[in-house]
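Private note to self, pasted from the team thread so I don't lose it. C-alpha cells:
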C-alpha cells in the first residue's frame, strides 16, 4: 500500500473545512493564503508551511492529533476489522457495555 500523505492530509483538511461550512475562499482568506494554494493543499499537490499548519489548526479548532487522523480514509472493511480488533483487546466489562450501547444506538 502506497502512502500519499499530502493527498490524505489534504482530503482530511477539506473534510474538516466542509464540516465547518467554510468555502475554499473563506478558509483561504482566514489562513491568509490564495484560494489556488488551498486547492493545491486539498488535492495533495502542494504542502503547507508550519505557520500555515498552525493557522489551519486554529481556524478549524482541531488538535494536531485530530488533523493527522487520516485512517478514516481506509477501506470500510479495514476500518471494521480495526474496530473489532480494538474491542477484542478491551478487558474492562464496563467499557465493553458502553461500546455495546453506542453501537446499538446506531
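Design output:
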Amino acid at each position: 500500500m502506497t502512502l500519499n500523505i499530502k493527498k490524505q492530509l489534504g482530503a482530511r483538511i477539506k473534510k474538516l473545512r466542509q464540516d465547518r461550512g467554510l468555502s475554499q475562499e473563506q478558509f483561504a482568506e482566514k489562513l491568509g493564503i490564495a484560494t489556488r494554494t488551498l486547492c493545491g493543499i486539498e488535492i495533495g499537490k502542494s504542502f503547507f508551511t508550519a505557520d500555515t499548519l498552525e493557522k489551519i489548526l486554529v481556524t478549524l479548532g482541531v488538535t494536531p492529533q485530530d488533523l493527522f487522523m487520516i485512517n478514516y480514509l481506509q477501506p470500510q472493511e479495514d476500518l471494521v476489522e480495526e474496530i473489532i480488533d480494538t474491542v477484542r483487546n478491551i478487558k474492562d466489562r464496563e467499557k465493553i457495555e458502553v461500546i455495546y450501547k453506542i453501537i446499538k444506538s446506531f
